[in-house]
Amino acid sequence: MKEKQKDSPEINKNIHPPFVALFYIALAMILQRFVPISFYVSPAGRYIGLGMTFLGFILGVGAYLEFRKARTTLDPHGSVKSLVTGGVYRLTRNPIYLGFFLMVVGFPLNYGSWWGIVAAPVFATTLSRLVIEKEEAYLEKKFKEQYTGYRSRVRRWI
Fold first, then answer.
1. Looking at beta carbons, which pairs linking 6-12 to residues 24 or more positions away fall under 8 Å?
2. Whole-number Å distance between alpha carbons of 129 and 39
3. 28: which residues sit within 8 A by CB, 6+ positions away?
4. Are the CB atoms for 131 and 17 separated by under 8 Å?
5. Which residue from 35, 89, 44 is spatially nearest to 64, judged by alpha carbons?
6. If we measure between CA atoms, which residue out of 68, 71, 66, 75 comes closest to residue 8?
7. Is the torsion defined by CA of 139, 7, 131, 85 positive or negative?
8. Could you state, in chain order, the average pLDDT of each consecutive group of 10 residues for the chain (158 residues)?
9. Which pLDDT belongs to residue 3?
10. Which residues, 6 or more positions from 95, have their beta carbon under 8 angstroms from its beta carbon?
11. What does the angle CA 155 – CA 157 – CA 116 come to, to the nearest 5 degrees?
12. What is the pLDDT at residue 39?
């Protein structure tokens, strides 16, 4: 008897994108405590950090609403029912992950730390390798030309 084919991305079940983002935010804050970057962050810079954190949150909420409208799962380990391409997904293929990226930079910046700027590219690379590439391979396999067309119109990050 043929084994049933798995209908979900092959993402390690122990990898959860929100926790990856929290790890890098915490790392930036801990590094600031023990190895401070000696540049002054102005009050305007702190407000920019707060704005980035808020914008990251709004991107996540927008993505959540699009997933609810499409009645599909938000779980990166789950099987999706439909390809979400509306709302914030017209701007970026990964609004939730872009939101996390903005939070990794913005939250530490709001607290006077430049370490989020250092951590953000490492966070993006980690998330791309552990999650995004696997999600994209799954979506391409499941939705074929529909996903390929979407991918050609909308960038991965911005």
1. 7/79, 7/142, 8/77, 8/78, 8/79, 8/138, 9/76, 9/77, 9/131, 9/134, 9/135, 9/137, 9/138, 10/134, 10/137, 10/138, 11/76, 11/77, 11/130, 11/131, 11/134, 11/135, 12/130
2. 31
3. 104, 107, 108, 113, 115, 116, 118, 119
4. yes
5. 89
6. 75
7. positive
8. 69 96 97 88 93 98 97 95 97 98 96 94 98 97 97 95
9. 46
10. 59, 60, 62, 63, 88, 89
11. 165
12. 78
Q: Give the Å distances, CA to CA, from 85 to 7, 39, 154.
A: 20, 41, 9
Residue where the block lists tokens 């391979």: 137
CB 108 within 8 A of CB 25: yes
Task: Read off the tokens for 32.
Answer: 């600031």
Dist. CA 136–CA 154, nearest whole Å:
13
The one-letter code for the residue type at 75 is D
Place of tokens 């993006």: 124
Spatial separation of the C-alpha atoms in residues 23 and 28, rounded to whole Å: 9
The type of residue at 145 is: E
